[in-house]
Please model this.
Amino acid sequence: MAPIDPHSFTDSAHPLTTHISLTLFFDFPSSTISSATLLSLPTPYTGPLTFDTRSLSVSSVLDPLSLSPLPFSLSPDSPILGQSLTVSLSNQNQILILSKTSPSSSALQWLSPPQTFNKTHPFVYTQCQSIHARSIFPCQDTPAARVKYAAKLNIPRQLSAVMAARHVERRDPLPSEAQGVCEDSAWCGDDRVVEEFVMEQPIPPYLFAFAVGELGFREVGPRTRVYAEAVPAVLDAAAKEFAGTEEMIQVGEKLFGPYDWERFDLLVLPPSFPYGGMENPRMVFLTPTVIKGDASGAQVVAHELAHSWTGNLITNKNNDHFWLNEGFTTYAERRIVEVVQGEDIAALNIGIGWRGLVEEMERFKDNMEFTKLKTNQAGVDPDDVYSQVPYEKGFQFLWRIERQIGRPAFDDFLKKYIATFKFQSIDTDMFLNFLKANVPGIENEIDLKLWTEGTGIPPDAMEPVSNIYSKIVLLANEFKLGRMPREDEVADWKGQEWELYLENLPKSVEASQVTALDARYHLSESKDYEVRVAFLQLAISARCRDYYGEVEKTLKEVGRMKYLRPLYTALVQGAGKEEEKVFARRVFTEACDCYHPIAQGVAEAILAKHA
Model:
């Protein structure tokens, strides 16, 4: 057996699925989904065929034409990969698998009514990246296996569903369509409704996504609705924050070619959503922490929009090449931001990213493999090594190429790259070969091997050059000498300026300095979580216990890993932190039920390592 992906049981000798048809019955009281998964191959096949599963109970595998059972076996459970499901086929090109999710499915977060805004109805949503689609339905859970799909979601009638796919209709259930996921009487209950969706373009399985709950929406553009829980204040704030979305789509099209996904809708999720955004096609998922009231949250939308070209159209073949998704998208996002919000804001973004990259070098100093662009992740959980490196070092690599050949030539190259590889999954060598073929002699100007296979930050990476960036870094350096910025110096600062300032402050400052800074600028109460969390990290490192109440409140009200990871790490890392370790454990124990399973795992790993 030769795996094509260190994170999948998919065998290189086996055919890849091309279409999946899903019949899903949502049971909120048990936090489970019963599913019938119809997998289609390009041609009839004889022999073993292996799929990925995690925490799924598989009840039967059938030939969908005769409904006769097909022999299957499940491997022992692997902590990272889950279980392989191997089916024996005899000249079949379709397989029907009946299965049920576990309440602890790693892709799903089930929220009880008290955990939602309106407190009246439950809510469930997915997060399938990197390798969690397999915990919803059996599949070849690798980006190398792109699939089209159709889905019927049978849900309680008082709820509605959205999906990263085209909505076909909402209708009454039909008795003939349950496919064995439940009794016809349950499928066709008076209190049930079916929402039907179709995805007509081939996507990697990690982009499979849905949410079910009490949802409302606002129109914000010809291609864009903003969805969220049906709370007018949340919907209105989101619509205001993302009012400029259509302009960004048009800028993206000018830079990278036509937008190929028809709709670009946004879903603002409950605060437990573990990422800033997830680029699910046609329906981007967002954390509510990006709604800041000053339209700066649109930068996360710019990033997810950029994925419509780099990541969704062209996808990394597996997680060893994750930079092909995220480095390109970070570059593309900053190009969009530069046009829409100006060069200074783009430079601030690059500066914040640079600080993040430098900090990741410290984080991985004992395991420099994960400071490479092209990594080896065999035996490693991709969630454990998720970092800014593929984003920011990947960005730096592409920015370096742009500086070498000039922006007009690089823009032409990007358009050609996207047109050549769209709807394909590629690896680093394919990109480098394309680069060398289209930019002759580039390997003599830039050390491509050092950039992609070397550890650390290459010597020809660079910080941004801008007046505002230099001024903020200068002010941060003066703080070390005891000088706080004057009010007139920060009068026009928004969240990003403060974030950059705080991230450039020395890690060891006096508690009195921290308290004085907060007394003047009230950073611990900032509505902008980037600012608040950066300040609280500073407070923890200075052992300012006055702020631990604010730390606890923050860890309990959001589940975004960008905030959980640094706060829990700051509390427990280092010597003489016994009091902090007890505090961190208590807060985690009280908060963890409100975190998505992926975030629970990340926080648990930090505590297990240090506490």
